[in-house]
Design a protein that fits this description.
299 residues; alpha+beta; disordered C terminus; signal
């Protein structure tokens, strides 16, 4: 499989997830406790405060850096096909997420995937083609109100709320904490329409080690995204996962499809001396967004 096809499928999968996740539904404004119905008012209040305190600890783990730059090893698997290539990751908070893939040994860029709040850009250096899509160009994205910031939170190892830019102090009570859950991981959940979000945080460190997103629809099938975080390393006075692995599975197409991507990051840098937006040569041919999605989603 061509490396840029992996990029395009990754693009489609993440976009399909984010479009569903950005649907705006009423979210309950109080912490829901799995054991609250059996508790006395005094116990329920104590559980409420304990749960809220844990969500606050998890929220406080987010890094303060505005820029994260790193070399990476990029591995993508689809079916029986797998590629592993060197690459780089550039992220600027609220501005851009950029993944670049290089030809092994030669170091020349072969492909680039860039997410911004306003558009998604895929550049195929090998064939001198590119795809640049305003989210509103795609009906299923426009109708569901795609939100870049949910995707950003996944890459940055943070909590998020569908349809919003950031999670404020007053939003923490919207999450459900399973206080009766035993073990080293404590689930934090959020229900939003057909979507269920679960962040599994380490009980001791309050770091998010796994994020699960599940979408169930009688009309559009079932889709799931599982995002794993490991190998935490210092970034300023916080810790950031140097290894991230995410798998997207969907039954919305003619057959069940699964794509898994693993990012193994090198040494972190926080410098800001790099371009925020990529430019495309006028010699490159633009691909049609809807045609690309149509081909990918009908595979």
């Amino acid at each position: 499989m061509k490396k840029t096809h992996i990029f395009l499928t990754l693009f489609a999968g993440l976009m399909a997830f984010t479009s569903c996740g950005a649907q705006k539904a009423a979210v309950k404004d109080t912490v829901t406790l799995s054991s609250a119905s059996k508790a006395t008012p005094k116990t329920a209040k104590a559980d409420h405060l304990q749960s809220l305190a844990f969500v606050q600890r998890v929220s406080d783990q987010k890094v303060y850096a505005q820029n994260i730059v790193s070399s990476m090893t990029f591995t993508a698997t689809m079916g029986d096909k797998e590629i592993t290539v060197p690459g780089s990751l550039h992220m600027r908070r609220d501005k851009v997420i950029r993944l670049q893939l290089f030809i092994p040994l030669l170091g020349s860029e072969v492909g680039r995937l860039e997410f911004t709040p306003n558009y998604v850009l895929v550049i195929d250096r090998m064939h001198k083609e590119y795809l640049k899509g305003d989210y509103n160009q795609l009906d299923f994205l426009r109708d569901n109100g795609l939100n870049f910031y949910s995707l950003q939170a996944l890459f940055w190892n943070q909590l998020f709320l569908p349809g919003t830019q950031k999670v404020g102090e007053g939003d923490l009570s919207r999450y459900t904490v399973k206080t009766d859950e035993m073990g080293t991981l404590r689930p934090i959940t959020l229900q939003n329409g057909n979507m269920t979000f679960t962040w599994k945080a380490d009980t001791a460190s309050a770091r998010i080690l796994q994020t699960d997103v599940n979408y169930k629809s009688a009309v559009h099938g079932n889709s799931s995204l599982v995002w794993l975080y490991s190998d935490f390393k210092a970034l300023g006075n916080k810790m950031f996962p140097a290894t991230q692995s995410f798998s997207f599975t969907t039954t919305a197409t003619k057959k069940t499809q699964k794509c898994t991507v693993r990012l193994e990051l090198g040494k972190f840098k926080t410098d800001s001396d790099w371009e925020e937006q990529s430019t495309v040569s006028d010699r490159y041919k633009q691909m049609d967004v809807k045609d690309v999605f149509g081909k990918i989603l009908s595979m």
